[in-house]
Design brief:
Blueprint: H1 2-40, H2 54-73, E1 74-79, H3 85-98, E2 101-107, E3 110-115, H4 118-123, E4 130-133, E5 139-144, H5 145-168
């Protein structure tokens, strides 16, 4: 039950972060439109940019999108290795370093990485963590979908290269 609460809290925090993120982007865009429109039509107010009653609908839309977005953009995938994770740990570290990640913490059964660049972390609202649950084979990897696909592809490529190199020797 404790794990489910942790997962639910993490999901809720991500949804709230995205709600704030979408709202900021929306108000920036609308603010820019308002600034350029106010020069053309004197007396135009911010609220005049919207039809009457549309602001609650827009807010509801943002709440719905931010509630769904974490489910679509973060996921867990299995990484199949030709042996135990400890055999490939150094290679995974190298791949993650090439992809601009650094180890956040290494514990028995779990390794997490975060982006090196603070700017990159900020643009992702500090939701850039990639977690490897190494206790089992296949290894369970969790993170941002786009990054996870790139990371797993690079790791699988390196594993295949190592296998070929060992076969050729």
């Amino acid at each position: 039950m404790k794990i489910n609460n942790r997962i639910a809290m993490r999901y809720l925090i991500r949804a709230l972060k995205y709600l704030v993120y979408f709202a900021i982007i929306f108000f920036l865009i609308v603010g820019i439109v308002f600034l350029f429109s106010s020069q053309k039509a004197a007396g135009l107010s911010f609220v005049d940019l919207f039809k009457e009653g549309s602001l609650p609908k827009i807010a509801l839309f943002f709440v719905a999108v931010s509630a769904i977005y974490p489910k679509l953009s973060f996921y867990k995938k299995e990484l199949y290795l030709n042996g135990d994770f400890t055999k490939y740990a150094e290679m995974v570290d190298e791949v993650m370093k090439k992809l601009d990640y650094e180890p956040e913490k290494k514990e028995p059964g779990c390794v997490t990485y975060i982006k090196k660049s603070t700017y990159a972390r900020l643009t992702r609202m500090f939701e850039d963590r990639v977690t490897f649950e190494t206790a089992d084979n296949p290894v369970k990897v969790e993170g941002y979908r786009k990054d996870l696909l790139r990371i797993l592809s690079a790791i699988n490529y390196q594993v295949r290269q190592e296998s070929r190199d060992q076969e050729n020797q």
